[in-house]
Design brief:
Order of helices and strands: HHHHEEHEHHEEHEHEE
Radius of gyration: 22 Å
Number of domains: 2
Distance between the termini: 33 Å
Number of strands: 8
Structural class: alpha+beta
């Protein structure tokens, strides 16, 4: 049986805080139960999906087995996994909750937090739709809230960001390493077939990229300054073609996360 990944899995940023392997497999197991209306305990859900008795979470062990923060196949990620475990323990302590130690305890915690839905009569596991953000369920520090919001904006406006990038590729001269082209928000919106809001977000998501820079009066604009632009104000979009050739082979799926993607 095919496993179903929640559409908004990456957008919610839970994978930044939870052990990624167990969380991904639990989300997919409960997502499949939701999609295919599979009832029963979490073990029964796994047995149905895997078509075997006492099935385990793939690459994560049995439900009553220890919660694996480290991926045995990726020892280079051990330090990051240990830091994520410490961060989540601190976050749960702020919320007065106990750190899960098994896969089942993680599922039970997520049900208590409202990320998953577990009923007992009849017994079933379902996803909460849409998946709640971690900032909606736990006392996330302010700096992390801002980062989470930016990732959510990326997923909501990534198509607009790609449209602005395609406009940049088509309109910035490439005869030299650095080229630039003038534009306004109104012009970009019309030529990219976007709303003004979509255009602002699509342009603001260029902030921090190594190849594309938005300038006004020869000064780079950050995302807040881009949002403050009036529809008619002229600015420049600069492209570093050498950086483009290197960085756009793999581009950001969201700040701090890499993913292969065509441009």
């Amino acid at each position: 049986m095919d496993w179903s990944m929640p559409d908004d899995y990456w957008r919610t940023t839970w994978h930044h805080w939870l052990p990624e392997g167990p969380w991904m497999m639990l989300a997919m197991a409960v997502g499949t139960a939701t999609h295919r209306n599979i009832d029963g305990s979490l073990q029964e859900v796994l047995d149905t999906i895997c078509e075997e008795q006492d099935a385990e979470l793939p690459r994560c062990g049995p439900l009553n087995g220890p919660l694996r923060w480290k991926d045995p196949s990726d020892p280079e990620g051990d330090d990051e996994a240990e830091q994520a475990e410490r961060n989540f323990a601190e976050l749960l302590a702020l919320a007065g909750r106990t750190m899960p130690t098994t896969n089942q305890e993680l599922a039970d915690l997520l049900a208590e937090l409202g990320v998953l839905v577990h009923t007992t009569d009849p017994e079933r596991w379902r996803l909460t739709r849409p998946l709640p953000l971690i900032s909606e369920t736990l006392p996330l520090p302010e700096g992390h809230r801002a980062h989470e919001q930016w990732i959510r904006d990326y997923w909501d406006y990534r198509d607009a960001n790609q449209a602005v990038l395609q406009w940049t590729i088509a309109n910035v001269p490439d005869q030299e390493r650095i080229g630039q082209a003038p534009a306004t928000l109104g012009q970009l919106a019309a030529e990219c077939e976007l709303t003004l809001e979509e255009t602002r977000y699509g342009l603001a998501l260029m902030d921090g990229q190594s190849d594309v820079t938005v300038l006004r009066h020869d000064a780079p604009l950050d995302r807040e300054q881009i949002f403050a632009l009036k529809d008619h104000q002229r600015f420049q979009i600069r492209m570093d073609w050498d950086e483009y050739a290197e960085s756009r082979i793999t581009i950001m799926r969201a700040p701090g996360e890499e993913e292969l993607q065509e441009v």
